[in-house]
Amino acid sequence: MAASAPGAFEGLRVVDFSHVIAGPLCTKLMADHGADVIKIESLAGDMMRRFPYPIEAPGTTTQFVQYNLGKRSVAMDLRDEEVRELVLELCDSADVAVENFRPGTMARLGLDIGELRRRNPKLVFCSVSTFGAVGPASEISGFGFVAEARSGLMYLNGDEGDKPSAFGTALADMNASLHAFGAIGAALYRRSVSGEGTWIDISSYDALVTMIDHALALHNLTGGERVFGRYGTRHPLIVPNGVTQTADGEYVAYGCAADAQFHALVALMGREEWQTDPAYATGAARVATQAEVYDAVDEWAATIATADELVAILADAGTVGARIDEYTDAATDEHLIARGTLAPVEVRGVGETLLPSAPHPMSGLSVHPGGDAPGLGEHTRAVLTGELGLSGERVDELLARGVLGETKEAA
Predict the structure, then answer these.
(1) What CATH architecture does domain 241-245+251-323 belong to?
(2) Are 68 and 373 contacting, i.e. CB atoms less than 8 angstroms apart?
(3) pTM for the complete prediction?
């Protein structure tokens, strides 16, 4: 991909009312694809600007940078009637708008979604919330962990007897962002055919439930007679498929999705009789004998000197294994860099550093962060004068009245 190539969303204008993760990741992905994302912030700014850990650029933290690369920031007091009218005008020429407040908040701010769409019928408006704007649970507020807990995924995460646990990432928020990104793309295609925009109502709870692997479908399709079981270090239905440990203390993830792979594995283990024993020979049979199978694999793996050696042994036998790395190993992975998933960005106060980009390589198109994350209100003046035609004097008046914000660097 040439650096001069256009992005797939080049020329698309996005008004971003969102904060923290669930909305900002979606709009950040759009910015990676070339969209002009105008981030509307309160005068205090996105709360991510106050999360750990601050970096040298004023009002900026590591988390804020991650989710807001390549955007323009306008700081406004949306309680002010004149400011609200400016926002309405900005949305009049926008292609997409995104928010992730509690349902009803946009209307309370005087920015009713129906009114925005009436003024601009081509607008694709995407709302992201914990339980969505429609349904019996829509009034329940909460962050992503509420959706993770209620969805059943926390319960499924861990081995039998373990406490339910989180996932090492903001799974609900990030998953909802990806669904929002995909739904916006679908809505934009439909608009290209019909000329009409739409309102998208994304629920992080809905999005999590739809990504549960087989457990929910198994329950409903069998009338509750079959149970998936918990999945931490041992898969309950594809046996064996899990995590084991070698003599050096390192961990290896391995899997035998096919009976032939299991037969190859037990040959390595010196248990060739299991290849024909009806209690072990098939995947369906191994569900009932899984404790014995997993214990046997763990006992054998503990005799292998290193994780790398075990991975090589499994590969030679035609089965699958991978050493479990720390996340820091991915931070400079040459493969990710070559694919553009980790891209160099010049960040104020830090210098050039590798940060995640949209993992969507496209031939002939650029997919890359469009630049540093903005300072609070860094683009207030440029957006209002350039996009809405306000005079510099009028911007100065609104700044003096305290209903607009602007960083010192932009002043």
Answers:
(1) 2-Layer Sandwich (3.30)
(2) yes
(3) 0.94
